[in-house]
Amino acid sequence: MDTDKMTQAMARWWQTVNERGDDPDARPMLYDPLQGSKTTKSQQYLATVIICLGAAAAGTGLAWTSPVLDQLKSFNSPIVITKDEGTWIASFLAIGAIIGAVPSGILADKLGRKKTAIIIAVPYIISYLLIVFAQNVMWLYAARLLIGIAIGGSCVVCPVYISEYAETSIRGMLGTCFQLFLTVGILFVFVIGAYTSWITLSWTCLAMPVLNLVGLFFLPESPIWLLKNHRETEAATAIKWFWGRHCNANGAIQAIKNELEAAGSGSGSIRDLFAVTANRRGFFICVSLMFFQQFSGINAVIFFSVGIFKAAGSNLDPNVCAIIVGVVQVLMTFAAAVLVERAGRKVLLLLSSMVMALCLFVLGVYFYLKDHNHDVSNIGIIPLLSLVLFIICFSLGYGPIPWMMMGEMLAVDIKGIATSFTVEFNWISVFIITKSFEPMIEGFGGAVTFWIFGAIMVVGTVYGYICLFETKGKSNTEIQIILAGDK
After folding, report:
1. Residue 331 pLDDT more than 50?
2. Cα separation of 288 and 60, whole Å?
3. Cα separation of 376 and 356, whole Å?
4. DSSP at 220
5. Per residue in 415-448, is it b (16+ CB within 10 Å) or e — as a string?
6. 8 A C-beta contact, residue 397 and residue 352
7. Using 50, 70 and 90 to split pLDDT, how confident is the model at 286?
8. Taking a C-beta distance cutoff of 8 angstroms, is the pair 106, 55 a contact?
9. Distance (Å, rounded) from C-alpha 280 to C-alpha 288?
């Protein structure tokens, strides 16, 4: 479907809504498929918890190496690894995530969001079983590659699934739960891993995907996916499950059909993604947000967290430092979930990028002074405050919101493939930053490295101010109209 036809379809829908007699700009949202009907949100909250247990499993996979690698290098471990082998154990996860992203989007479009989420839970379980029964390092390589594939799939399917059943009034809050549960999984590993062996830790991590798998069987499929596949009766049943048996299911179905009609008859192909103006612009925004998320230097800051704690005069154990960082991330991501429907997406992203840039420049100054043999013992509290403030602002904005907006910005017909490519880009960025960080430190020094990240976030702030628009309270149809340039 070409751009003109898409624009005309959206314009017709816009005109139809305006003819209802209300000023669209005077209302909190252009249309709500549940407006005027009695709905309940408890089932949506429950479904989000079940789905996001996959995100928690992803968090355990991401954080697993933090407490485990040192144990694996100990002679008391049943498997002893070298430093190079430890690097590969960490890197295989990112490689697996790159592999898993695109196929998951294709499966989500072909089989459905629910079935794909069930399939993704299986490699999580197998990977942890491989770890606990590992005979040599090759078993660990295979497990980390497998869990990476599952994580890549979770990053695609979870945000899409949630965005397709969440009411507009709580869509932002539910969308941020992906990142929230990711940080919960990370904190879980930091706490358990600090006081147990890596085998015990792996057994406990197994609980997340098992609960996720069991819970998914009790959830209905995405109503939007069902209607896209002409399964109207099942869609009505799913709508009543998510929004309550007293909701206006027929009205919701008609609204979703209108949304699908406005999206056009596109096949959801790569050509549709780039040929249609709204699709192209929405995809570019999603990719841009993922770029600034990863090139903010979040991994670099966390990497230096133990050193910054020590520079502040703290004698805390590195495991305790990691737990403190994890607690801050969880609390502030929860705060983002509460604030995103009140403050809005754009405001939180701008606040996040501005303060993160400031913190990175301050950290750069600190390491410049330290590297040039200046006495920094009296200002150890400054980088510590910068570290904590950086993590707070990342968790409020650029941590959760790019994942949430990925579910909002993309039209329903290209959501699967566009989400896959966006997640693919995210994990390629993770791999680049992970592999290039130490060479940057060795080649440029800590100061210049942090200043580079700070400059990127300054660009991110300017980009956010000029190019982003507020999606709070807007339906997918409204968002697509704005992206198409009609309003």
Report:
1. yes
2. 26
3. 22
4. P
5. bbbbbbbbbbbbbbbbbebbeebeebbeeebbbb
6. yes
7. very high
8. no
9. 12
Q: Which fold has domain 33-263?
A: Growth Hormone; Chain: A; (1.20.1250)
Which ranges in 399-414 belong to alpha helices (H)? 401-409
Report the 10 Å Cβ neighbour count for 317. Answer: 12
CB 117 within 8 A of CB 188: no
Amino acid making up residue 455: A
DSSP assigned state of 375 = -
For 225-245, b where at least 16 C-beta lie within 10 A, e where not — what string? bbbbeebeeebbbbbbbbbbe
Which amino acid makes up residue 348?
L
Whether the CB-CB separation of 170 and 41 falls below 8 Å is answered with yes
* Cα–Cα distance measured from residue 216 to residue 221, given in angstroms and rounded to the nearest whole number: 10
Report which of 196, 221, 114, 215 is spatially closest to residue 158, judged by C-alpha positions. Answer: 114
Share above pLDDT 70 across residues of the chain, in percent, rounded to a whole number: 88
Does this chain's domain 33-263 share its CATH topology with 264-487?
Answer: yes
User: 355 is written with which tokens?
Assistant: 């303060």
**Cα 12 to Cα 264: distance, rounded to the nearest angstrom:** 12
Instruction: Give the count of beta carbons closer than 10 Å to the beta carbon of residue 205.
Output: 27
Cβ atoms of 294 and 453 closer than 8 Å? no
Amino acid at 129: L
Residue 482's nearest CA partner among 409, 432, 376, 386 is: 409
Note the pLDDT of residue 140. Answer: 94
**pLDDT per position as a tens digit, 365-395:** 988 888 888 877 777 788 888 888 999 999 9
Q: How many beta carbons lie within 10 A of that of residue 136, not counting itself? A: 10
Higher pLDDT, 312 or 15: 312
Pick the CATH number of 264-487 from 3.30.70.1230, 1.20.1250.20, 1.20.140.10, 3.90.550.10: 1.20.1250.20
Domain ranges of the chain: 33-263, 264-487
Query: Number of C-alpha atoms within 13 angstroms, CB side, residue 265?
Result: 2
Inter-axis angle of helices 277-294 and 401-409, nearest 10: 170
Structure confidence at residue 116 (pLDDT): 96
